[in-house]
Every structure is written in structure tokens, then in C-alpha cells.
Design goal:
By secondary structure, this protein is an alpha+beta fold. It has two domains: about 160 residues, Fructose-1,6-Bisphosphatase, Chain A, domain 1, CATH 3.30.540; about 100 residues, D-Maltodextrin-Binding Protein, domain 2, CATH 3.40.190.80. The chain is about 35% helix and about 25% strand. It contains eight helices and 14 strands. The strands form four sheets. Strands 3-4-5-6-7-8-9 form a seven-stranded mixed beta sheet, sandwiched between helices. Strand 1 and strand 2 form a beta hairpin. Helix 1 runs antiparallel to helix 2 and helix 7 packs parallel to helix 8. It starts with a helix and ends with a strand.
């Protein structure tokens, strides 16, 4: 897929993420969460469903199949023939949404040959947009309002990542809702090598955004995630010059696999 086509698709993904964010905020600012439990006991709200519908209404017409957490998942016999696909989490951080701590996002990734080549993460409460392409780079825009701005205009109004930092301590990210014993043991070992170590707790794909920004250095993940949880963040991290690696083999994670469960991974700059 050429760069010009990816730019068009990235713009559509940005518009879709903002539309989904608007739907999410409508629910978030009301008292009508309508929380249900899915088969794996993870929570599902009306906001997840409305965000999914908003995204699909835009990207479903672009000639590329969609793999969304809240959609119907095609079997692998069909999916393995997909050269490109969208991988979508309409509301990443549903637990954070229910807790009302504002740390939830809309995630949309474009996958080409199993690799995340472009991605969008939108943070509805803060109107903060992260977007990236492997050739274009990775960017953050604050206080976005106009949905129809061109990619060029968005870049002009954004800051390119990673941001320059001047600090001595190592910053390690931990999940707000999924910190476990393996992660804590890893951090304790890391402290022996880096006495000046600071732990940051954050929800949803915002952890990957902090790596892309260069606000944090390492994000170890020793608990389950699905492809839609991290595909968009992986695209943004990669475009910023950092990596998302299999914890054992140190190879880059791939997507649209037969098993949509991710291996444990390490995100680092």
C-alpha cells in the first residue's frame, strides 16, 4: 500500500475516532452506562457499542475488512487471506470509563501484512489525538475540535513525537487495573540496575502513548491483552522510534494472527 493511500485512510480513521469519542462522551456525561458482562466477564457498556457503530459507519466503506473488539470476528480461514485490515477497540479502558477516571481511549490501527503501519488513539475527555504513519512519523495534537482538517493541517497543529526530555530517573509504566506479581517482580529487579526508578500507573493504551512521547521508558506487560488493545499504540510507538517486542524472543509483535491474544511483551525506547 502506497503512502498516499495510507494518508487518506489515516484521515478517515481520525474522523472515525473523533466521531466515536463524541458518542462515548454522550454516555460518560450521563448516568446511563447500561453495564453488561461479556462471556469473559469483562464489562461492556452502551458507550462501547455506540463507539463501534460510529467507527464502522466510516471505515467499513473503505474496502478494507474490520476486526473490532465489539464486532463479529471472522474465523481465521477467512482472515488469513486479508492483506490489510483495520483493528479497532472502540472504547479501550472500559474499566477506567466505569471508574470515571478519564483514562480511556478510542483505538484504530491499520495493519498491512501483519504489521501496524498507521494508527490513531483519541482521548475523548481531554480532546487529545495521537496519530501516526510509518513514513509520516508520530504526532500528538491537543484540544482538537475540527473533524475535517486535512492531515497536513493536523500535522501543522501538532507536536512530533518523541519529545525531548532531560531527566535522570528511569520511568516504568504499570497498568492502573492489571498490575500483577510478575510485573512487580520485574520492576524490583529493574530497581537493582536503576536505583532512580519511577513507576507511573496509567490506564488503557495511554501507556503506549507515554512511551511514544518519551515521557516513559519501559512498559512491561505480563498479563493478557488482545490485539485491539495495543495495535494502534504499537503503530504510534513504532513511528516514534520505539518498539513493542515479544518478551521472550524480542521480535516485533504481529497482528491478525489465528489467536488474537497477544504474547506478553515489552514496550521500550
Amino acid at each position: 500500500m502506497n503512502f498516499s493511500k495510507r494518508k487518506e485512510l489515516l484521515h478517515s480513521a481520525i474522523v472515525a475516532s473523533l466521531k466515536a469519542g463524541s458518542e462515548i462522551l454522550d454516555v460518560y456525561q450521563s448516568d446511563d452506562f447500561e453495564i453488561q458482562l461479556k462471556l469473559d466477564d469483562s464489562p461492556l457498556t452502551i458507550a462501547d457499542q455506540r463507539a463501534h457503530a460510529a467507527i464502522v459507519s466510516i471505515i467499513d466503506n473503505l474496502g478494507i475488512p474490520v476486526l473490532s473488539e465489539e464486532g463479529i470476528h471472522s474465523n481465521y480461514e477467512e482472515r488469513k487471506s486479508w492483506k490489510q485490515c483495520w483493528i479497532v477497540d472502540p472504547l479501550d479502558g472500559t474499566k477506567e470509563f466505569i471508574k470515571r477516571n478519564d483514562e480511556f481511549t478510542v483505538n484504530i490501527a491499520l495493519i498491512d501484512g501483519g504489521k501496524p503501519v498507521a494508527g490513531v488513539i483519541y482521548v475523548p475527555v481531554f480532546r487529545q489525538l495521537y496519530f501516526a504513519d510509518i513514513e509520516l512519523g508520530a504526532f500528538r495534537m491537543d484540544n482538537i475540535e475540527n473533524w475535517e482538517r486535512s492531515i497536513e493541517d493536523l500535522i501543522q497543529a501538532s507536536r512530533q513525537m518523541p519529545f525531548e526530555q532531560n531527566r535522570e530517573e528511569i520511568r516504568v509504566l504499570g497498568s492502573r487495573s492489571h498490575m500483577n506479581k510478575e510485573t512487580q517482580l520485574y520492576i524490583e529487579e529493574l530497581k537493582k540496575e536503576y536505583p532512580k526508578l519511577h513507576i507511573i500507573s496509567k490506564g488503557s493504551s495511554l501507556k503506549l502513548c507515554l512511551i511514544a512521547e518519551n515521557e516513559a521508558d519501559i512498559y512491561p506487560r505480563f498479563s493478557p491483552t488482545m490485539e485491539w488493545d495495543i495495535a494502534a499504540g504499537h503503530a504510534i510507538v513504532s513511528a516514534s522510534g520505539a518498539k513493542v517486542l515479544h518478551i521472550d524472543s524480542e521480535t516485533e509483535l504481529t497482528y491478525n494472527k489465528e489467536d488474537l491474544l497477544n504474547p506478553f511483551f515489552m514496550c521500550k525506547r
